[in-house]
Automatic annotation (TrEMBL):
Pfam families: Lactonase. It comes from the Bacteria. Residues 1-20 form the signal peptide. Belongs to the cycloisomerase 2 family. InterPro entries: Cycloisomerase_2, Haem_d1_sf, Lactonase_7-beta_prop, WD40/YVTN_repeat-like_dom_sf. Keywords: Carbohydrate metabolism, Glucose metabolism, Signal. The lineage of its organism: Bacteria, Pseudomonadati, Bacteroidota, Bacteroidia, Bacteroidales. This is Lactonase family protein.
């Protein structure tokens, strides 16, 4: 009997299955576009057992299109996505109990339209879409942002002369082994870097892997083991599966997510147990493709869930029970319950009404 319980405990750790220690309430931060009546950043209490929410606070901030926490909940980092030389990254102080947010400090990204944030132990990275670059910001001992220390440029080479004529970097993903991947949208490549956690410095490492021409790689996610990487491409609307090792990618599979060829592929996430993968599609037939993850890491498309308009970003609760999707042009975050057996989604209708929501993050427990 003891052997059985020990084995079950190991499975829970490996698969990310919810346990009794998991908190009932999550603190959630939402970024919005502020071209309508939005304040900017909002905090919520979200019940991951019932799928209901309570608003806590808001903070005035221009176009906080993406934000991310580090290992602790007492601060997060957010970009101001604007297309000029005022584009910036800010550190925000956060009280998890009250949801109160306070601006700590801000640094220029030196790349227009920053659209992604990745937090490392001693640095923060931003992907700057119109700037076509990756910016590196060292962190001080108290978690504030030092001025940008390095800037890496993306390339061109894709066949879409309207959307790949200039460099665009859209996502930065730190891997467990210290390497960092970045989506080089206009060159149809994934770039590789190495991050030295002792010094906080990022060094170029070349091309990690190539995608089919006219892909436009956008967002990147990885399995819990770090051995499999999944890339959602905006232009081709396809999910590309790679085997990963030491900053290099080996192509395994490409599966179409956007069957309407709308050229609006967006976000991609795995469930905490790694059994299902979801990818959002925009511009036509707006919704989420649902994939089963097979034993070898490859995927099989098993369903499609229509959503509100322009599902730019989505996130999954730590217990794997709910998927929340930010539907920008419907001014709503929709809350879907995940069937843990089939991976299919059920709309709970517990909508969160906000002007132009575009990023959802949950505060870590620490």
């Amino acid at each position: 009997m003891m052997k059985f319980l020990f084995t079950l405990a190991l499975l829970c750790v490996d698969w990310g299955i919810a346990t009794a220690q998991e908190p009932k309430d999550l603190t959630m931060i939402v970024g919005t576009y502020t071209d309508t009546q939005s304040h900017g950043i909002y905090s919520f209490r979200f019940d991951q057992q019932t799928g209901t929410h309570v608003i806590l606070d808001s903070l005035v901030y221009v176009n906080p299109s993406y934000l991310a926490f580090g290992a602790e909940s007492k601060r997060f980092y957010v970009v101001s996505e604007v297309g000029d030389n005022t584009a910036s990254l800010s550190a925000i102080g956060f009280d998890k109990q009250t949801g109160k947010m306070t601006l700590l400090n801000t640094q220029l990204t030196h790349g227009a339209d920053p659209c992604y944030v990745e937090v490392a132990p001693k640095a923060v990275f931003t992907a700057n879409y119109s700037g076509g670059s990756l910016s590196v910001f060292p962190l001080t001992d108290n978690g504030l942002l030092a001025p940008m220390s390095a800037l890496f440029k993306g390339g061109i080479g894709g066949p879409d002369h309207a959307r790949q004529n200039l460099p665009h970097v859209h996502c930065v993903k730190q891997m467990r082994d210290g390497y960092v991947l970045a989506s080089d949208f206009s060159a149809d490549k994934i770039l590789s870097f190495y991050f030295d956690q002792k010094t906080g410095k990022l060094k170029g490492n070349g091309v990690a892997g190539k995608l089919a021409h006219d892909s436009g790689p956008r967002h990147i996610t990885a399995s819990r083991s770090g051995k499999t990487v999944y890339v959602m491409s905006e232009l081709s609307g396809a999910v590309t599966v790679f085997r990963y090792h030491a900053g290099r990618l080996k192509l395994l599979q490409t599966v179409l997510s956007d069957s309407c060829y709308a050229r609006g592929g967006a976000d991609i996430h795995l469930t905490p147990d790694g059994r299902f993968l979801y990818a959002s599609n925009r511009l036509k037939n707006d919704g989420l493709s649902i994939f089963q993850v097979l034993n070898d890491g490859k995927i099989k498309k098993i369903g499609y869930q229509l959503t509100g308009l322009h599902p730019r970003n989505f996130n999954i609760t730590p217990n794997g029970k709910y998927l929340l999707v930010a539907c920008r042009d419907s001014d709503v975050i929709q809350v879907y319950r995940i069937n843990k057996k089939s991976g299919l989604l059920l709309n709970t209708n517990n909508d969160i009404r906000l002007p132009h929501p575009v990023c959802i993050q949950f505060a870590p427990n620490r």
